[in-house]
Amino acid sequence: MSLSMIMSMTGKAWHFARSNGWLNLLRLILRRLSSVEGGFGKVRIFKHYEFVTQPVIGAAALANGVSKKTINWFVPEVGKGSGGHLNIFRFIKNLEASGFENRIVIVGSTIQKAPEQIQREIHEWFFPIQAVVYSDAESVPPAYFTMATSWQTAYYVRAYQSTIQRCYFIQDFEPWFYPAGSDYLLAEATYSFGFQGFTAGSWLARKLGEEYSMPTCALSFSFDRELYKLQSKAQAERKHKRIFFYARPPTARRAFELGLLVLAAVLKRLPQAQVVMAGWDVRNYDIPFPVEHVGLVDLKDLPALYGGCDVALVLSCSNLSLLPLELMACGVPVVSNRAPYTEWLLDDSNSVLANPTVESLSTAIIELLGSPAKIEELRQAGYKFAYQTSWEKEANVMAERLANLAL
Q: Which CATH fold would you assign to the domain 59-222+391-405?
């Protein structure tokens, strides 16, 4: 391969990442590599998408007489630190407390692992749960409920016959993870499979119900009460105002570039303010203002990091993460972009919302930092709001809907 070809390919990759996000570039590269014979042969599109035409798994008759408190969760390959998996396992754990028997079925893995190893990793990386892990959908016992947890797993669940009721645990509008194309369309199609949806928040429930006629049950967010708490160091003790920014360039929907432009505008008017970035190692980015680079942080160290800041900038171009509630629980006011997918959880009483422009967001941060009274008001309001939420309460909402489906 010539130097000019390498430079051309590199340039195309860069432009693709800039337009569609680094995570989508990584997905594209991995997809190409996994679908190429020997790494250098022809691209095997049918191999990569074979789950879309997944043959029938099991038989409907096998589900006759199964307990109405059994759930088979079809889950993508488990990764350490995955927030999506954390939420899945959290609901499994709380449903166990309500008497449900859960099984975890790993599908679509690129690396084959023994079920016992996966179960150990779940316990070590997240927390112990009773659910037994299966790495083969054919071997999992029948269940009354079968739960998809991502758009790819929805195709497996559609093919799985040894069940009575198919459900879908949906944490975001996944078509938006991709540029317009095949993956977008295939992800979008799963919302019309007729599954009972359990959505992260009311915005997603409304969107899927209105646009795809999907039956939905909205589940709200909460936070880990053992971890996220008010920190002892008071704001008044800090010499300079500190702004926390969740910086994650590989995840396009977290608007890293817009965040940099907003912070640059803030520091131009408040040069003594300090910026703290965490979520990804961004030291190789040319950032024209001083930054405290924290990068990836152990969970146990996050409360102190959050509590050491006066305000947090959290941007989202799709459904919110758990971060706003975790910040509020640590007493940190949140500034975010105003949008339907943020306003189902955030409003003008518990945070500061601004239009997603450099001018609006930077002005919101500057005005907030200039008003100690407003900061204190939001600290108290956010903390109170966060502590009104409960993972146990949301698991009970899910359990009640499952019980009604089984009537």
A: Rossmann fold (3.40.50)
